[in-house]
Amino acid sequence: xxxxxxxxxxxxxxxxxxxxxxxxxxxxxxxxEAVPFRADVPLHDRIDxxxxxxxxxxxxxxxxxxxxxxQMLWLMIFTAIQESRTHxxxxxxAAVAELQKxxxxx
Length: 106
Prior knowledge:
Blueprint: H1 9-34, H2 43-61, H3 70-84, H4 89-103
Helix pairs in contact: 1-2, 1-3, 2-4
């Protein structure tokens, strides 16, 4: 019988990040289709609405993220959105910039 080698904490985090991004991508696509927003609602507000349940799910399902800085969680969300290709990269980058301003610390 073969035993699986236990992952180091760093290996586990890397595996979890990859799994998180992969799981968020279809959730974002579904969110874009299922949640009605007026046409004038900017992308950064849509991402902000998606982020709250996404972050809660990440923290609940991936124990390795319990002590991750918020920036790391947001980075996974942004990566999943970019990889989903639902919006042009320039539009996503502009939304990221708006959210960085919104959540910037003094």
